Each structure stands twice: as structure tokens, then as C-alpha cells.
Amino acid sequence: MILSATLSLFALLSTAQTPAPTVSPITFKNETPIPVLVQVKSIFNGQLLRDRPYLIKPGETSPPIQIPGTKSVSISDAKSPRPIVQLPLPQTNEELLIAIVGTEKSMKLELRKPTN
Fold first, then answer.
1. Rounded to whole angstroms, how far apart are CA atoms 77 and 114?
2. C-alpha torsion angle, residues 60, 68, 74, 51 (rounded to 10)
3. Cβ-based neighbours of 102, under 8 Å, separated by 6 or more
4. Which pLDDT score, from 0 to 100, does residue 45 have?
């Protein structure tokens, strides 16, 4: 009796676990003349997830950001909390390198080929 209850509980627990999603890294490169703050948010399993904000100085690159779900990015001048750019990110299973280009008044994102 105890063995069958234990096996039933084990079967229930093993089927309840969902496999971990595969998450492709996203890296941002700052090609503007000012430091920027980058924060990636996503919706995954009905929950809002926020990665930590990254301060990226001119010419520098963020560490790879790996967060599951449908993603969007918010980019702001490091001196001001008001976002300059807020955009959804493309859905892909490949690594992304996104360049932040422009000036403090007008920024945009450009997709680049990652260098491995």
C-alpha cells in the first residue's frame, strides 16, 4: 500500500513538472555617446519577469541576458529614469546582438550578427 502510494505520488510530481524553456541570450551594445540603462522584461506563464537593469557605457556591451517569454526592452539615459526607447523584441531561438545607436534625444535599435 505504501509503495503504490509513493509510486503514485512520484508519477504525479514527475508529470507536473514542465521542462525548462530554452532561452537564447540577448546582448546589447551601446554605440551612443552617452551611458544608457537597459532593462529587459517578459511575460512568461502569465507572470511579469524583469531582469536587472544594466548600465552600459559608450562602446561597451551588456552581459548576455537570458529571460524566458515574450520580451520587451526599455532603454533610458543613465541620468534620467524616463525611457527613451521601449520596444518589443523579436521572437527567435537564436542569439541576438542588438546595437543601441543614435543620440540622447533619439535612439534606435539595430540587429547585428553576433560574433562567436
1. 24
2. -70
3. 32, 108
4. 92
> Domain locations in the chain?
22-112
Q: Indicate the class that CATH gives domain 22-112.
A: mainly beta
Asked if the model's pLDDT at residue 13 lies above 50, the reply is no
3-state secondary structure 27-83: EEEECCCCCEEEEEEEEECCEEEECCCEEECCCCECCCECCCCEEEEEEEECCCCCE
> In whole angstroms, what separates CA 95 from the centre of its chain?
11
- How much is the pTM? 0.77
Please determine, for residue 107, whether its predicted confidence score (pLDDT) is greater than 50. yes
